[in-house]
Amino acid sequence: MPIYKAPVDDTLFILNDVLGIERYHNLPGFADVTPDMTAAILGEAAKLAEEVLFPINLSGDQEGCKRHEDGSVTVPKGFKEAYDLYREGGWLGLAAPEEFGGQGLPYTLHTAVGEFMSASNMSLMMYPGLTQGAIAAILVHGSEEQKRAYLPKMVDGTWTGTMNLTEPHCGTDLGLLRTKAAPNGDGSYRISGQKIFISAGEHDMAENVVHLVLARIEGAPDGVKGISLFIVPKFKLDASGEPGERNGVSCGAIEHKMGIHGNATCVMNYDEATGYLIGTENKGLSAMFVMMNEARLAVGMQGLSIAEVAYQNAASYARERIQGRSLSGPKAPDKKADPIIVHPDIRRTLMTIRAFNEGGRAFTLWTALKSDIAHRSDSEEERRTADDILSLMTPILKGVLTDKGFDHAVMAQQVFGGHGYIEEHGMSQYVRDARIAMIYEGANGIQALDLVGRKLAMNGGRAVMALFKEIGDFCEENRGDEKLSGYTKALKKGLNDLQAATMWFMQNAMAKPDNAGAGSTDYMHLFGLVVLGYMWARMAKTAEEKLAAGETQRADYLKNKLITARFFMERILPETELRKIRIETGADTMMALDAAAF
Questions:
Q1: Which end of the chain is least crowded, N or C, by CB within 10 Å?
Q2: How far apart are CA 437 and CA 67, in angstroms?
Q3: Is the pTM here over 0.85, yes or no?
């Protein structure tokens, strides 16, 4: 049976020692975030994840969700009880505004907790995860009346939320959507159409489901310029604000999926359902992007979380499974064979996953901190700088961590050999669950195009140039430290590759856009490698400083951190040169074949 232990100590090291979260006590919500409080919150989150959510992950996958003839959906056994404990603990509203019943704590802390929850049961945590995104969109674009009507119940988890974009004939190209909105004359609209792939679209864990739906108002322009966003509740609210009459929205089917079986991914039918406009007519896409960007960060974290739980199981199996002898002589002479963890190729697999997980955790929390600064700082310059980096990192974090999350779930499965292909070991589920994160909230090829086509040139390249300077300054400031030279030299080489690739795009993609498209995925991963390298260099610097100061309680942990940092710099970061070379080949060969030849 699978195992999981939340990485509390590693998360605390990043939050307290590397990021220095206490330095941000001037920001709203940060004042009470002491190391003791952070440890207490993460400890309670770990307990819920390990003892309540994780034990029903495998059974939830095996049972799945069930749609009944009346369109209602029941979730797997134990999910509702687990969700109730999650909801009653106030976890959904951890970072939500206090005025709507939330705790107002940092989004960074919410993100740390989110990794534990998602690793323990990704399918179940998608229900509150979608609700988080809906809350964000209503907070930014909803009217005061809409905020008062919906947010308190969504923040406390009594109601859940969804996002409805995709239709049978269109996915990323939302300009093709056909769902219609007809004015009722009283400020509401009749919404008609069909949406597919709607996660958490129908279930029996909440009193109401608040759908956020993209639709085109009659007479609106074609394309994305004519899209509006609507709140469409499963149950319309009565005069007292409670769920009343059933709305004209129903689950037509549950998608038969490769993974995330415990989440109800629904075909949603809207039959003149009553909806309420959010924000301005024909500006729905910008309103939905608030939700989508929040979701993309959460999905990147899902990639990390599945890689972490898969790694833990692979490492445990490798310590126990005996097969073959070490190349350098028996390591367990009292047994007929050695544990497979003695073999270099198994170590290569485990160290690769570990290095990405620990670097990815730092990357995720660093990005979440940028979000907190962007939304909470009273300095316009700080908000702008943080928002620049946040916007730049969103496609990278989503694309790189989910691509690698899947790759590493497969690598962890490989450690099990044939047993990894057998369901009761749980590795098959992690592979299947991780695969969706590369697709939803914008497939990763789209993330790469967003990075190259939009984010690099945003505000005249202000964000990318600021990040290049930050990483370059770090390398220069620490160049003279012998203990850090191995990290800074490798990081500077990776940064040089990234800057060269960026310059190549500037010189070769304007006149020939296919060059940008052909190199975009390699560029996204090159960029991700450099950011992960920056995270590792910062973690190594912190670990060296702690050891030099005589810290003994975490000495083994810190030494292991340095070994993993060296592995990343020596074995993984050099891939930046390969990515750069691929980018510089351009699009000629890639686009040479006639379409009929494929």
A1: C
A2: 24
A3: yes
